[in-house]
Write a structure and sequence with these properties.
Blueprint lengths: L6 E6 L7 H17 L3 E6 L2 H8 L8 E3 L18 H6 L4 E4 L2 H4 L5 H13 L3 E6 L9 H13 L11 E5 L15 H19 L9 E4 L7 H6 L5 E4 L6 H16 L1
Parallel strand pairs: 1-2, 1-8, 2-3, 4-5, 5-6, 6-7, 7-8
Bound molecules: phosphoenolpyruvate.
Phosphoenolpyruvate binds next to strand 8.
Length: about 260
Amino acid sequence: MTEQKRMYIVANWKLNPASLSDAKTLLSGTKEVAKKAKGVTAIVCPPSLFISPLRELYRKSTTFFIGAQNMYAEDTGAFTGEISIPMLKSVSVNHVIIGHSERRGMGETDEDVAKKVSRAVNAGFTVILCIGEWERDEQGSYLGVVEQQIKTALSKVTYTGLSQVLLAYEPVWAIGKGSGSALDAHGVHQMVLYIRKVLKDMYKKNSVLSTPVLYGGSVDAENAEALMREGEVSGLLVGGKSLSVKSFGDILLAASKVTTS
Ligand code: PEP
């Protein structure tokens, strides 16, 4: 029998929705469904402008969190447009996505990611660290790309600090492509095993094998259950489908089903 575990479902709203009022509606609907999803931790990451007003909408919970889509590694200074760890902490936000491929595509390097991850972990944050190859080649060099991303991103994170990290494997070629474009569950499982092997090489302890590994890339209500069950991930990172209460709710409920059966 497979061990029952908690599922982490992360919503990345990206640059959506267009208004605070729509964001409030989306958040309250999402929160209602999340209540029914036993065994599931939901982390909703809205645009930074909406974090504070949304955070004020509900009481503190241990299974539902507002997170940030990104943060800057410095606490203060001349960094136009950025948000810092102290700013997030001041509005009771302790979860952050780091290294999303869309940020990497705007110039964020593995070293930038490493600095952010280490600062966030040291500040007590839970980090959703995104890794994933841009493309797949038949020779398997994408495995080396993922290994390098993990090793650099976690280079300053201790064994203890690793317990604050959720790894989100997101093959970039599968992100935002819509139904039927996700990596299949077997492929996801292969990558989960590979990522665990990389962690074991780095930290030399068997316990790192239980570090949660999530999958992201064109997840929807149809493929979510198979990805979690057969892919043996500890959760999902959801972009497009997190913008509808119905589709995100179905993904949350699928995760709950996986934890309870
Ligand atoms: C993402 O934003 O990380 C993502 C996985 O998006 P989508 O679910 O739309 O592919």
